[in-house]
């Protein structure tokens, strides 16, 4: 009997922990981008939100928790990732042969995961060592070279998050074979909206500097 047939097998528990940690991180990313996006409406509004979150220590407490959650999620997901060059080459060739969109999406997740793992540490460190959080300080970091980092980091986070939510929905039967096309379309629309919001927020902060 294989692990797939055993409901409470170690493999299934790890799959659940991977999905649960991924869902929590996806929720955080959505909320974080929405809060950051308030700068498009008003930098003063963003500064007010940042001040409140620091005053009740949400920012200080959540930062290390998110870093630990990213590490845990990567740890449980890494067992399925093709780290060796030979394994990666085989996987890419198979994905081209199969022409299966979901396989290609998983490959995108693998590549973006590496960037996010390193980028998350840089992002949290640069923000938390430059308190208090403010639009002016964010603008200074962008003009000091941070813009190039976020131009790469932002789309990676959005792609990884959107594809991850879709794959969780498929794995647990929320998205069926009959509704996959609809799910893919909706996920891409949501990802595009968040990407536009992120780009507008970066532009707004950049010109504040």
List keywords for this structure.
single chain, 209 residues, mainly alpha, 3 helical TM bundles of succinate and fumarate reductases, 7 helices, 80% helix, globular, disordered N terminus
Question: What is the CATH domain class?
Answer: Mainly Alpha
The helicity comes to: over 70%
Distance between the termini: 62 Å
Annotation field: number of helices: 7
What form results from the Cα inertia axes? globular
CATH structural architecture: Up-down Bundle
| Main pleated-sheet profile | none
Q: Can you describe this structure?
A:
- The protein has 209 residues and is an all-alpha fold.
- It has one domain (3-208): 3 helical TM bundles of succinate and fumarate reductases.
- It is built from 7 helices and no strands.
- It has helices at residues 10-36, 43-55, 58-77, 85-98, 101-128, 135-171, 180-208.
- The longest helix has 37 residues, at 135-171.
- It starts with 9 loop residues before the first helix and ends with a helix.
- Mean pLDDT is 86; it is low at 1-7.
